[in-house]
Each structure stands twice: as C-alpha cells, then as structure tokens.
Amino acid sequence: MKKGILITVLVLTMIFAMNTIITADFFDWITGGSEYQYYSPKKLKQSIEENKSFFLVDIQPQEDFAKHHIKGAVGTYAYPVKSKSDKAKLDKIVPKLKQSEDEIIIVCLRGGKGAERTYKYLLSQDIKESRLYILEDGQAGWSYDQLLTDKKVGVINTEDLAAKLGADDLAVVDVRSDAAYNGWKLKGEVRGGHIKGAAQLPYSVVNKLDDKQLQAILKDKKITTNKTVVVYGYGSNKSTKVAKKLMDLGYVDVVVYRAGISTWAGNDELAMDKLVNYEKLVYPAWVNKLIKDKNNKDYKIVEVSYGGPKKYKQGHIPSAIHLNTNRIEDKPDWNIVADEKLENYLEKLGITTDTKVILYGSNSNMAASRAASTLMYAGVKDVRLLNGGLKSWQQAGYKLERKIHQPTAVDDFGAKIPVHPEYIINTPQAKKILKDPNAELVSVRSWPEYIGKTSGYSYIESKGRIAGAVWGHAGSDAYHMEHFENIDGTLRSYSQIKDMWKEWGITSDKKVSFFCGTGWRASETFFVAYLMGWEDISVYDGGWLVWSENSDNPVKYGDPHK
Asked: What pTM was estimated for this model as a whole?
C-alpha cells in the first residue's frame, strides 16, 4: 500500500515538473525566474495600433536596419554591444530614455545575446528594470509587415541643398557619365561640370558592380553611412535607383535632388566645378561623331601599343592608325628618341604641329599617355586622350574594324622639335627640382617599389627610391595604375587624385616633375595634371632606371614617415 502511494506521489511530481519545463524556459525552471523581461510581437503590435507611448531601441547593424525595421524604431546600430564604441552608440540615446518613464523595448536581429547585453548595459546606466523589455525573437520574428517602415527615398530642393553644401556630414553624388561630370555639356545644360564637391559615381558603373565592389568604391570616395547622401543626375530616374541601392547597403539618410544639374547649372550663383582641360579627355560618342563628320578630316585617331600592331590588326576604332612606342623611345634606358628621329616618325604618321590627335590605348591608358607627353613635348598643339581606351569604345557599343590604315606622310612637321622642352627633363634638372623648396619630384611607382622592397621590373636590379622624392601613388605593381583608374579603366575622379596628391605636398602651385621606372606611368600622371590645368609640370624621362645606374645618386629605403 505504502509502495503504491509512493509511486503515485513520484508520478505526480514528475508530471508537475514536466509541465513546468514545458510552460517555461528550462533556465527559468532551474533558477526560479527569467533574467530579462520580454515583449511579445503581438503585444507590441497592439501597443503600436493603440498609439501607446514607448521607446523602440533598435540595435541592428545599419545595413539590416535600412532593409527592415519597425515603424518608430530608433536605429542605434550598436550590435553586438560588446565594445566601447558599440556602447557609445547607446550612450547617445540614454539621456532621452531617462527623460521619460515609458517602456523601452529592445529590438535586435533575433532577440538574443545582443539584446541581453543592451538590457544589462541600460540597467548599468540607471534605467529602471521595470521599464526594460526585449522583443521576443527580435526583428526576425516580426511578422506584421504592415508595421514595417517602407524604404522610401526622400527629396531635397535647390534651396536646401545650396544651404547644406560643404557641410562635413553631407555627401553629394553625381550619377552621370564621366564626360558630363568632367565638364562636357551633354544635355544642353548652361554650364558644364558638376555641383561643387560632388563625388563621381556613374549609374552605368553602379549597375555592373556587386555589393562588395560598390562598398569599396563608396569608402574610397568617403561616401559613408553616417552622412546625408544627396544623389543627382540629369533627372530623377537613375538618381532614385542609385539612392535605393545605397539604402540597400545600409545608408539611412539618402535623398534625391530631382531638379538635377540642369536647374543647378542654370543659376550662376550656385557653385560648380569642372576639369579645367576637360575637352582633352574625350569620350566614345564624341570620337564617333568626329569620324562621321565628312567635312572634318584634319585629325588622326591613333591606337598606341608596345611593339607591332598585333592587337590593332584584331580590331581597332574605325580610321585609326597604329603608333608603336618602340618608335618614340629607345633602349637601353627607354628614354624618348632623339628629336630628329622623333620628327621623322611623326611625319611618317602624317602628324604635324596643327594636327588634332586623339590617342587611345589598346590595353591601358599608360601607352597612350606616353605618346601624349611625347607629342606635347614635340609641339603638337591639340593632343587628346580617349578616356578608358579601346575598352570604353567597345563598352559604348561601337564596332571595331580590321582594315589596316596606312598613314599618309607629310613633308614637314611644321615646327622645330621640341616646341616644349620643359615637358621632358633629364637627371641634372631632376636634381635641381630636389633642391627647390617650391618643387616636388614625384615617384609614380607602387608602394613596394617606393620603399625599396622591389625594383618593379625584371630588367632593373636596384631597389629603393630617389632620395627626396615624394610618393605620387600608382598601383599594385609596375604595370597597373589602380590609384588613377576606375574599375572600368577610365580615369579616376580628378578631385580624388588632387586630394591624394595633397597629402604628399603635391600641389598645383609648385613645379612638379613625375617619374616612374622608365616613363609610362609618369606620363599618365603628367597628363592628369595637365587635364587639371597644372602649368609647371614635366616628366623626368630617365626615372628610377637611369637614376639607379649611377651609384653616386642618393637613394632611400623604407617608409619616410617612420
């Protein structure tokens, strides 16, 4: 009998215990109660619909908050609430929380550890526990879509944009083409160029990038998530698409300037900027129009590459002739050929001092830039570069041709070469620049080359840099120029290049000479400076190769800032 009673008691005890475990969290059953207070989604929905007063403290990362958050939530972006900087984000709202006795509901991704750490931190800041709650299952468990904030892009008018222009917390983004941004008037605007201070982010480029690539570009252009971002173009369609893309990446305060550049440019009192010599950097449609103009034949389109016309024969811009860089520079130092030899080659190409010459590279801007600096040195008055080279022509949808065009030679170049000897300097002149406090000798080499980890070339043994030379940036190695070119091969925004150079004391008020290993990279930066309107510029033709051949020339290694 006693045994039966004991079994019955044990069974009832187990049933009671199981019921307790089922109806409460296991931890609560062991400890006697939950460490936190919770708010169910259903209860929060009712509170919102009844217009109850409370605080919704959302700690989701900014990109998640931008994608989905409950109406009325305050985005703190404090997740995971571990570091001092995370908690500092919560500190910004603590004073406001203390001004009221309203309930505080903490929202995180799933209502887990991040929310718990927020709960404890707010307790430590003397917030009453009776006011604190965690939303069960967090944002992931919220099923009431009608109470989510819609992702709508705001707008800004001309007056407000003009008043805010130049503020540290403002980023203005121009989504038009490179050509329009630089200064070409493509849609009948009164003034060419862009809103002063605007960053260049063409819609055509944004469309081709994945999120990671776009985020890297935005960071590079200092378009950060803590700023108000104003997006504009010719109209609002493409601007709105780019704005929504930014919001998908976590940008919260994004607005569109719907009036666009035409309205802004129509008011002379509103600040604009442009590339000084923008017309020397041409775009595919301009070249195509030139080719189709039967009344204008006083020009030469020239494809430039190292060696023979192998790629040229595979396809080139219609009517283009080929220029072999081996004909304008000589071994073993790869300096520009003697003036008489250069004159002879230009005459064979049919180029005179008055010929309009449009250069483009089959592989890179460097080869075309090397030809550009050489032609300018010789005395060709109108030298232009196709931005992005052959690749940009093809991406614009224009066809190539395979016909080999043999240039018609001319009898006389039309001027004594060099017309501009100041554009190309030698080693003694480079040494004078190093001694001049108002001049800079600029190393356009990769960082590993600059600090002496590598020479950069298989045919250059010596490592290091010219003592006294400042770093002008370049790219990953001797054959790339990522610091000066966009992902599509077009030249990077001149305003970014200007800021990059300024950090190393390279400014337009100084005499500036660029050098690299032999001359190609230096020529690209020379032409960029020329486009920006810099006047006292040159290429140190000998570069690192010639300098390093003489052991008497001073050399430095390592980071000059350390």
From this structure: 0.77
